[in-house]
Amino acid sequence: MKFALIDAEKTHHSVSDLARVLGVSREGYYAWRRRGGRSTRTADDQTLTTKITAVHEASRATYGAPRVRADLAAAGVHVSRKRVARLMRQAGLQGVHRRRRVSLTRSDRAAHLLPDLVKRDFTAPAPNKIWTADVTYVPTEQGWLYLAVVLDLYSRRIVGWSMSAEQKTPLVADALTMALRHRRPEPGVIHHSDQGTQYTSREFAKICRGQQVKRSVGSAGNCYDNAVTESFFATLECELLDRTTFVTHDQARAAIFDFIEGFYNRRRRHSTNGYLSPHEHETCYYEYDNAA
Fold first, then answer.
1. Residues of CATH 3.30.420.10 domain(s) within the chain?
2. Which of 28, 51, 225, 278 has the highest count of CB atoms within 10 angstroms of its CB?
3. Exposure of 12 by Cβ count < 10 A (0-12 exposed, 13-18 middle, 19+ buried)?
4. Yes or no: domain 130-291 corresponds to CATH 1.20.120.1220
5. At what angle do helices 15-22 and 26-34 cross, to 10 degrees?
6. 215 and 114 in contact (C-beta within 8 Å)?
7. For 227-273, how does the pLDDT look when each residue is reduced to its tens digit (9 = 90+)?
């Protein structure tokens, strides 16, 4: 660092002579001194690291460089992903990483009678057109707590969920009922799931018929046919479940509710949405639709 050399030798030579020999300006040296002896880049990096740390903490210590960069950009701070990644490494900050999820599906032989209306096309033209659904388990010291969700393919928002100590049809029926009650879709919304017995039961079929919901199922034992919901569960596991130990079912229920509604739906940036949260992505859709 040339300015640091000038600072070290100024007792033996004039600042003007040192600056001339080193090819820098005298004014630049004094500006460097006023900044406490730090280069502009170093000072900027320290300021940016403070902002990166705040974003990382607000993400519940889950964001990696791409989502941190998106959060900074939303606040008017535009930097490269590589720079964010470098500063995160230097600060000891890192995102969490997904692990492969174990399926709970118990297939029903009658499921082949239901069509696959999605066929791995995980896009939707608007909210409340295609929903996907699945069940996962949450370990607690009281035993398993099962979680069923309904996810909107347009925004990746969790629009319905239910938790129970039993993995039976009421678990998935309650999740669908919540989605229908809160979203009020037009008749014909597609509900896509795996071939689990809960989703192919007569009780669940009756609810779907009564609410004009079209049932759709993927092929047996193929997680790729319901990859979007599987992806949400992987996010839930690596960003919450793998980092927390629950003593009771009530503790797990509260934490999962907070994760879904307090973070995932409203704040967590989703790469499929152009790094907008599900809530922001839907808000943009409705604002554009109303303006058209």
1. 130-291
2. 278
3. exposed
4. no
5. 110
6. yes
7. 999 999 999 999 999 889 999 999 999 999 999 999 999 999 999 99
